[in-house]
Amino acid sequence: MQFKFSNATKHPYEIILVDDKNLKPLNKLISKKELDYVVKSKSNEQTIITLNRLDSLKLVVLVKQKKSKSDTDEAIRKLGASVQSILNSHKAKQAFIQSTCAANGVSYLFAEGLSLANYQFLNYKSDAKKLTHSLTTLLFSKNSFTATELNQLDILYKAISKARDLVNEPLQTLTATALADAFKSMGKEAGFKVTVLNKEQITNEKMGGILAVNRGSILPPTFSIMEYKPKNAHNKQPIVLVGKGIVYDTGGLSLKPTPASMDRMKSDMSGSAVVSATIYAASLLQLPLHIIALVPATENRPGENAYVPGDVITMYSGKTVEVLNTDAEGRLVLADALHWAKRYEPALVVDFATLTGAAAAAIGDVGIVCMGNADENTKLALKTAGANQYERLVEFPMWDEYGDMIKSDIADLKNIGGPYGGAITAGKFLEHFVDYPWMHFDIAGVSLNMSKKGYHPVGGTAYGVRMLLDFLMHYTIQK
Ligand code: BES
Ligand code: MN
Ligand code: ZN
Fold this sequence. Notes:
The chain has 479 residues and is of the alpha/beta class. Helices cover 36% and strands 20% of the residues. The strands form 4 sheets. Strands 7, 8, 9, 10, 11, 14, 15, 16 and 18 form a 9-stranded mixed β-sheet that branches. Ligand BES binds at residues 249, 264, 268, 325, 327-330, 354-358, 360, 416, 422, 444. Ligand BES is lined by residues 249, 264, 268, 325, 327-330, 354-358, 360, 416, 422, 444.
């Protein structure tokens, strides 16, 4: 999708956004007859009204205030998604968007929803040309859209598309090595540094969590370090992003039960897609922030030499972990990355992971479970970013009792808790490997769609990127 300014007076496809409580601005844009038609359609509860002039198509989109700004903004994004399918059904190539609404940013939100809905993953379709959406370009007028908005929208769309592509690629093509290669090319394109540790280096470092999970695989693990450090960075101490990079999760020897439970497991690297896409966007946007992203990557397989329930592994930090379920692998690879992060003396570490089915069971596919020890201001800033982007956060408590559930009889820790509170016991496990301000985000419920939802097509959603980017764009150093 491309985003451009246009100063043409006529466009074959034109979208007019208007407050549903004030249709007056339409007087200048459509005929009296058309306005009567809009008023009539409005009384029939229609929100997208098509005016077909034969040589052009105008879509009047009524914007309604909801009970909060967050809800209104999301409704506008969703209107964009609805218009996306209308435009493609008309085989439109370009569409001109203008807003007559009183509030700023309506065009942006609408175009965001429209463009994100227009994303397609066609890498494996032999008739991709035929299936490709006709719509390629959104046009804006200079008086209703700023150059900053245009640039931001373009970068956001690119970043989300990258993240979704990574999630949608199957293991067959997206191994741990291929994932690291993808980060390298993103770094080259956007201008951040990417260093990848190979199996030998990971072994020399004694990253016991990553190595244990990798043992059942014939393919090597990788540990990627991405760094964006602009000269004008406001923060002396970096912000570190950590993403779970399990390129496929079979459960290992504690094999996931079939049917269906493995269907989504190519998406178990979604955390890595979120953090890499975010640093990519931050770099393209030239945010004045020093940011580092870490991705421990491997598949979790039940191969010949796979780690087994009962094994006690020594983690990178030196702590020992009794493995009682090889399917609780995410926390093992993340723990090593969280320990690595200590060397940066970070201002804040955030990790993103499809960590537990329990998080999805608790709040479903409409938000992110988060927890951590960051200060209240940081938590508030994160939650605000979540509301702004409608990638909402629910904070879970990290009470001591949950920590008791992962005590081991023979090692420092065990890798599973009891039958309840699974999202939190996973978080409590990670807590053992941090000594800095930290927040954990469990995106198991939201990272992959089995059917289209609003502006998220089937497949990878990149859920979390917009929230995290919004947070970083508003990040100010607290004393
Ligand atoms: N990758 C899964 C979590 C997951 C489940 C992500 C469903 C997306 C959808 C994770 O590695 C896992 O298997 N977690 C286990 C932990 C359990 C064994 C303590 C789970 O949630 O069942
Ligand atoms: Mn697992
Ligand atoms: Zn997993």
